[in-house]
Design a protein that fits this description.
Distance between the termini: 52 Å
Strand content: 25-35%
Strand order of the largest sheet: 1-6
Shape: elongated
Length: 96
């Protein structure tokens, strides 16, 4: 007997760990260089708006994968709808 397939929502985190090397006057400026000028986009690459002579990086190409939660897709949307309904009701005079 064939088992029916169900759709699941799997909350997942990908963590890329590595280093940025930057020229800066102090630790705060080094931190700001990375926070304000460096990033990563899925399907893209690590990038920076700083000149190449001011920044370099070393990151693993494969992230750590963490599964946070698995639930039936319908259950997720049903629970989300309840949250929204309770929030809307809390904004009215009906529930006080």
């Amino acid at each position: 007997m064939k088992k029916e397939m169900k759709e699941y929502r799997v909350t997942t985190e990908f963590i890329f760990k590595g280093y940025f090397y930057t020229l800066a006057k102090n630790e705060q400026e080094a931190k700001e260089n990375v926070l304000e000028h460096c990033g990563l986009v899925i399907g893209g690459d690590i990038h920076s708006t700083l000149p190449d002579k001011m920044i370099d990086w070393k990151f693993a190409i494969h992230p750590k994968k963490i599964i946070k939660e698995v639930e039936l897709k319908w259950t997720y949307y049903k629970n989300k709808a309840k949250e929204i309904l309770y929030w809307l009701l809390s904004k009215t005079d009906m529930v006080k």
